[in-house]
Design brief:
Layout lengths: L8 E5 L3 H12 L3 E6 L12 E4 L5 H9 L3 E4 L20 H7 L2 H10 L7 E4 L2 H11 L3 E5 L9 E4 L4 H8 L5 E5 L5 E9 L5 E3 L4 E5 L2 E7 L3 H21 L3 E10 L2 E8 L9 H4 L4 H9 L13 E8 L6 H5 L4 E5 L10 E9 L3
Parallel strand pairs: 1-2, 1-4, 2-3
Antiparallel strand pairs: 5-8, 6-7, 6-8, 9-10, 9-11, 9-13, 11-12, 12-15, 13-14, 15-17, 16-17
Helix pairs in contact: 1-9, 5-6
The structure holds adenosine monophosphate.
């Protein structure tokens, strides 16, 4: 792959905070970003060189967008794949990574095929399937919509007999997967970058704490248990990226169980649990992604400090901005998204710890 030179334009499908932080990192290397998003004023467009407002299935608009960009990437996975053919070979990572990650059944089948451990699961398309899944998997179990789920949305738990059919109602009778409830001691994620030659670099895995399905905090180092499963998780993440032919950053979310790491889900992109890398790693996940898709050598993902902790600012928590910017050592990120709706990720703060 020929490396892109400074001044080249990176197209980003999606204009949320991940696109925003990617655009800021790209600017640092001398690249310009062009955001493509259906919304009126996405927060990534505010820090980018160009913005096209368009639907993700508008092939003509996508064709014009591709003509204006040297490479096109994405910051979220819920985009229909067929219209992206309009982007041709400029789409990096390719459509295969999207296809697998945007459908929980395809994802689990893929993970099983590459030898990654996942929770026992069943596809569920009807109340009868839900009842059969309950009989096969036992309780508790969680029903998750196959598509368009994020931050715990499109999920319902079944804990008592007959609960799976009720959970299927609760998610609106949409095509789903049923997953056995996993007994885990911790959640963590492994962020891997893979370049076009197949070389990979991994970030240290943070321990992730969720609240109501939304990431609350990521901490690196992730503690003894996470560190003891890091090498196995790295192997799994590298295998997934390789099998997908993925170029760019890819995130694998894990449950740390007594039997080792078990994959919860994959995201074919930069991830909330990697925001700590902006201050905490020699190369941030955003710069690393830009490097990979532009054909540049991958950077050093090593820690710059003893550790880092990233805390999300969700909904009205963004009102702590003034207090946080006054806190010595706190790196505050405000996404400039406008209305602070409940559950909406509005910003984050990272604090580094000194080397022991
Ligand atoms: P997800 O959107 O799939 O990442 O799920 C959101 C959160 O729900 C996860 O981070 C876990 O805390 C929890 N969760 C999801 N699936 C399971 C499972 N099979 N067993 C136990 N907890 C789960």
């Amino acid at each position: 792959m020929t490396a892109l030179a400074p001044g080249a334009t990176i197209g980003i499908l999606g204009g949320g905070q991940l696109g925003r932080m990617m655009a800021l990192a790209a600017a640092g290397l001398g690249f310009r970003c062009h955001i493509y998003d259906p919304h009126e004023a996405p927060c990534a467009a505010r820090v980018s060189a160009a913005f096209t407002r368009g639907a993700f299935d508008d092939r003509d608009a996508l064709t014009r967008f591709a003509a204006a960009c040297d490479v096109v990437t994405y910051e979220f996975e819920n985009i229909a794949v067929a219209p992206l053919a309009a982007l041709g070979a400029k789409l990096v990572p390719g459509a295969r990574s999207l296809e697998v990650a945007q459908d929980r059944a395809a994802e689990k089948a893929f993970l099983g095929a590459v030898g990654a451990r996942v929770a026992p699961w069943r596809p569920v398309d009807s109340a009868e399937d839900a009842a059969a899944a309950e009989a096969a998997l036992g309780l508790p179990l969680v029903l998750k919509t196959r598509r368009l789920g994020y931050d715990g949305k499109g999920q319902a738990w079944a804990r008592e007999a007959g609960g799976a059919a009720a959970a299927f109602e609760a998610i609106g009778r949409q095509p789903a997967v049923a997953e056995a409830g996993v007994q885990f001691a911790a959640e963590f994620s492994l962020i891997v970058a893979r370049d076009a030659d197949g070389a990979t670099r991994c970030f240290d895995p943070p321990r992730n704490q969720h609240d109501g399905g939304i990431l609350r905090r990521s901490t690196v180092p992730g503690g003894e248990l996470v560190e003891s499963q890091a090498a196995a998780a790295r192997g799994i993440a590298e295998r997934i990226a390789g099998e997908l032919g993925h170029v760019g950053v890819l995130t694998v979310e894990f449950f740390a169980t007594a039997d080792g790491p078990l994959v919860n889900e994959i995201a074919p992109r930069v991830h909330n649990s990697g925001h700590w890398t902006i201050e905490g790693a020699l190369t941030s996940q955003f710069e690393q992604h830009v490097r990979a898709i532009c054909g540049l050598p991958l950077g050093d993902p090593g820690l710059v400090a003893g550790g880092a902790e990233m805390e999300n600012l969700i909904g009205s928590e963004i009102e702590r901005w003034a207090e946080l910017v006054a806190e010595p050592g706190a790196a505050v990120h405000h996404y400039d998204k406008g209305e602070a709706r409940a559950g909406r990720k509005m910003g984050h703060v990272t604090r580094l710890s000194r080397r022991a």
